[in-house]
Predict the structure of DNA ligase.
Amino acid sequence: MPLSPAPADQHSAQPGPQNYADVPLDPFIDLLERLTATKKTRKRDRILEAFFKAHRKLVGNDFYPVLRLLLPQKDRERAVYGLKEQNLAKTYVKLLGLQQNDPDSLRLLHWKAPSAGEGAGDFSRVLCEVVQKRSSNIESEMSLGELNKVLDDLCKAHGGKDSQEAQARVLRKIYNQTTPAAQGWIARIILKDLDISMTEATVLPVLHLDARDLYNVCGDLRKVAHDLFNIEARLAKEEKQIQLFKPFLPMLCTRPTERIEGIVKSMGKDGFIIDEKLDGERIQLHMRNGQYRYFSRNGNDLTHLYGGNDEEGSLTPFLRGVFDPRVESIVLDGEMLAWDPASKRILPFGTLRGAAKERPKGRNAPQPCFVVFDLLFLNEDCLLDFSLKKRRRNMVHVVEALEGRIQFVASRKGSTAKGVREVLTGVMEKNGEGLVLKHPLAKYILNGRNSDWVKVKPDYVDGMGETMDLIVIGGTFGGGDKAGGVSTLIFAALDDASNTAGLQRYTTFASSGSGLTFADLTWIRQKPWKTWDAKSGPKFLTTAKGSKDKGDVYLEIEDSFVVTVRAAEIIPSDAYGMRLTLRFPRIMRIRDDLSVADCMRASEVTQARAGNRKRKLEGDIELQRKKRKTTVPPKKPTMGPVYEGPNLSKIAVTGGLFNEMGFVVMSDPKSRTGEQDKKQMCELIAKNGGKYFQIPKKKPDLQLYIVYAGTMTPYDLKLAINKDEFDVLKPEWIQNSVERGKLAPFQKKYFFHATKRRADTDEYESVEVEERAGASPVESVTEDESVTDEESDEEQTARPTRQCVAAKEHRIVKDDPHAAWFTSSDAREPEQLNEEDSEADSDSDTEEVDLEAWFAPPNEEEVDGVAQPVSSGAVGAGAVQEENEKDGKESARMGETDDASEYDSGFLFRHFFKALTVLVERNGGKVTEDLREPKLTHVLVDTRDGSRTKELMKRTSKPKRRHIVISEWIEACIAEETLLDETEFVP
């Protein structure tokens, strides 16, 4: 019986507005380029907002053609293309007529390999560079409407007879009518990943205030675009509720930022609900009068698998009678799992789709089982605003569980951390996924994450898991940030069971790339890697039948090395030679102190797994031994000398040479007189009107510079240089300026490091002093910077490998054919785009439209009126003053100014301590001043203060030894986006 059609729905999308023109392709490509080049969220929003406003004026109010290209991963109407990078590369090789051994053919087919050039790891860039050599197109002839039609044709060509030939013909049309840069972006659209760090959560609110709410309940870009084309119209509350037979975006669990005790405390005194976390596919079931629809978490319709009525599918025919007769319509949220009737247990996730494809053959064949954990819609009433407790109560009354077909999630009440650990122990002994702690009064938040639903896994809390030393025998090439070489390592254990006659064999065990720093990757990529022959492979290695444990390259044993790997647990897997693997592995450190002979044996891995299955989760003994509370007056915080900085309160200001300029002075760590030199430099700056700061942070009212006299690059300076926000001057520039009585030119000889913006100036490369008449060099630069601040931000791409080499830069130049799209000198403000402007012009020509209107920024007053967030590392005057004004307390500055009245090191330390606290807590950690705190894991100390290290080690050695590290460890971990080895940061 064919799949029954969906019932008529009164909530279907309204007929869309008609555009009176089409968007040219090149302006849209420029939009993507500019969004990629701009890091700041607010500026990206302004670019997108300007484009949308221009669209309304020049094209019309139907944004669906734009949205489905801007959010290709959310376009449900376009089926799969059947073209991943490899297939796309093969198709392009064919349509370009490249020979198999042609260098460009090899670049496309092996786009991840370092030999692919600078764009290695970024397929769109490699494609762009290959096409650039052969294409003469400097302007695209397509519009967005035509591109959408071509992409529809590309989808239709997939799966048919001679599909590769048909798709090649479609791609040839793209090749003939678009620029190389555009083809790179079109490839990203086909791959459904623009990689511009913008999702529906950021794009839709710019289009309309209610767009995200509507998308959360329907998951349909067409409906969003057509229902909300009028920016003045607002949705009623009921229109933001769940709609039957329309997929919504479900509520998600949040990852914990604290231990179990903290999670339990945040749930309140009335307890919480403990659900078992299921390892299946998130599914929402919609039913009305015997008609069913099944949708995945991403809104994909899976009704063809499970059945649209009780006569079709692998599940629906078995649901007769499970709903109360009074139920006319219902929506359930749950997890689809594979069930084994013979053993009456849940099977691994990989078996689900096989069980769902057809009705089970035989009584003991695996079958899909829907495990329900929430009721969201009942008889035309939306229950989102009901508490979880009420929703659960209704759920068990209207649905009758049927073993192996539809069941309720294993759930119980909880109130203590001990109880959570006991439940987690039982779940993990059964190879379960973990737990989800839910607040009983929690409302259901569409597409939301908050502390009402918290997932608890062994690797998230209490430091549980496995740590082992493994040998690295292979690697795979990476993409994106880690492009250009090996980025994922394949680990092995010594196969001690099969070693005979001195021949040592190893067996693959796991793979991971997380935890590696860029320095690690640089060192690893210098190893003598050899190409991995997929057919034979290294003779000393035992691998699985599949391809997961076979990399692009491998190392001979004598060239290999050992790494320490930490993971949640050891689990069964057919993907590796060990028949076991690690769950959520992370590389802790490269073990230079170990040889390959010290790596873990296969028998030790097996023993570790056996011990892990029997291991009970240890309780927190220290928390149970609560000491009697005593009232102790709080100690005044102390400050390490390196953070105090020189006392400049008594320095008399004798000149205004450095007015409106700020400086961070860093001493040379290799110089014996480094601190004295720093003090003298700070005094010289203060005498001439400059402001001194301890930490580099952008200031709205002055230009900040770093002054450094050393030759090596300390880690804190390296972090500042990597951000490319501040010039690093040599002390000679300060001294020369004071001697001259005016600011010295910003020439290359005065810089330890120049930002990209500075290095591009003519003054930087000049040898002689070149000053404009009547203006000093710094005035010239400052004026220029004030004009091009936003432009320079846009030039700093998130990833330099993103764009084609031949693609134009985003700097506005006179000969840029699209300069008008990005200039705002004579552009009208968006408020002037009134109804008269938006009327269709019969004489208009979209090819000669003034592109300035597409990207003219919104009203500057609106932007300036928004309070800008303070940097996580900010301890400067602006942040301190704002905080103290809120508290009604006295304000203070980290550095000294003319009106500074008193120097208080304790007061200053509070700001340094607060800055570190913000960094730690913003990234999931907690801060304490009590060395006896049982949860304490790390103690942060002054970079050059080793006098208290031994005493701190003694005081924090029980019940377990803590890590004593310098504060730079925090910044380094955040910069590398991973936990680094503490031994590299000992004082």
